[in-house]
Design brief:
Rhopdopsin 7-helix transmembrane proteins, 15 helices, single chain
């Protein structure tokens, strides 16, 4: 019997119903009577509180199940891919020979303390590292989960997208009419494809068995690709910011920008060093913000949203990466997904979409000047 609904019964019928139970004694009715009265005295506010707690518990249970499903799915994918490649490396699909110790170690997910010193640049990423891979094994690592997978996939897919779809979105009917538009359009295409290719190659082969020697070359290749975007990719918006000024000022401003671009290449590629690479492009960023301000003197140019966002997203990404957000608050939680370097990768991809949008606008405006 549900005592919570005892208001539907009178006291005599309740006693009679209870007394019919086997082994029940009459003198126990007096003990039950106060409890039934206390149940009848429960007010509606208490019932509402109980309902709220019940709903909150259900929500927490659903959230727990959802997190568990996500975690389980990741682990299943991780274990499945590892099983395939640990037991079927290279020619193992055709051969029954067991994997060698070297092959087994190549796909082992190392911890932070087990990897070489030149790869220890984020102490808050604890697991999921690769180490001691040859060329083929590095290529195969594209297909299983580790702490560089998100970095590789984000820029590999960006490379394919911009390579295939971005040139189709340029106004070639206007571009082909004069050499200036064609020159800036080719610079834009090259600079929006180069960084994704360089980044993918760097993250895919950074754990090669040749150690720091090959790592430094891969890092230089990645930095060079970034410099192409930061310098050559910004030629069009910088030039359009001074197009309404006299020839002397335009010549001086563009020459200064080229000299700063060469200086930044020297800082990030020749001198090297983590802080040099991190702040090596700051002079070019400053020049581009000055260029945005100079655009206010032209009544024809008003694509400020794209110009600001294409600079703002990489700055936010650089700050997130420098301060190790969010893994600094929970080391080991973001080893595979959504760590600071992953977030920086996503933000620079978003910035490139705005770079492309502003370039299309600038090319159309440039065609009206020449």
């Amino acid at each position: 019997m549900n005592l919570g609904c005892c208001d539907c019964y009178d006291e005599s019928s309740l006693k009679e119903n209870i007394s019919l139970r086997p082994g029940f004694k009459r003198h126990q009715l007096n003990k039950i009577q106060p409890s039934t009265r206390s149940i009848q005295s429960v007010d509606s506010s208490t019932t509402i509180n109980y309902d709220f707690i019940h709903i909150r518990s259900i929500f927490q249970l659903i959230l727990l199940i959802y997190r568990r499903l996500i975690y389980t799915s990741i682990r299943i994918y991780y274990n499945l891919i590892n099983f395939i490649f640990r037991n079927s490396l290279v020619d193992q699909f055709r051969s029954n020979e067991p994997c060698t110790k070297e092959q087994e170690q190549a796909f082992y997910n190392y911890k932070f303390n087990d990897i070489p010193e030149h790869l220890k640049f984020n102490p808050f990423i604890l697991e999921g590292y690769r180490s001691n891979l040859n060329f083929k094994q590095s290529l195969l690592s594209f297909f299983y989960l580790h702490n560089e997978s998100t970095n590789i996939y984000s820029h590999a897919f960006a490379f394919l997208y911009f390579l295939i779809f971005m040139p189709k979105n340029l106004p070639w009917n206007i571009i082909n009419k004069n050499y200036q538009c064609l020159f800036f359009a080719l610079c834009h295409v090259f600079s929006t494809i180069a960084p994704w290719f360089g980044s993918t190659v760097y993250h895919l082969f950074m754990n090669h068995r040749n150690g720091q020697k090959i790592y430094n070359k891969l890092l230089a290749f990645d930095v060079l690709a970034i410099w192409i975007t930061q310098s050559i990719g910004a030629l069009l918006p910088v030039y359009m910011s001074v197009i309404d000024f006299n020839f002397t000022f335009k010549y001086f401003y563009m020459t200064l920008y080229v000299l700063l671009a060469i200086r930044s290449l020297y800082d990030v590629l020749i001198v090297g060093g983590r802080m040099r690479r991190r702040f090596g492009f700051s002079s070019l960023v400053f020049m581009r913000f000055v260029s945005i301000y100079l655009r206010t003197y032209s009544n024809k140019i008003n694509n400020y949203d794209d110009l600001i966002l294409q600079e703002l997203y990489p700055i936010i990404g650089a700050l997130v990466s420098a301060f190790r957000i969010p893994e600094i608050f929970s080391p080991g939680t973001f080893d595979l997904f959504l760590n600071s370097h992953n977030l920086m990768h996503f933000l620079v991809v978003l910035a490139t979409f705005h770079l492309h949008s502003s370039a299309v606008t600038d090319l159309i405006l440039l065609s009206n000047y020449v």
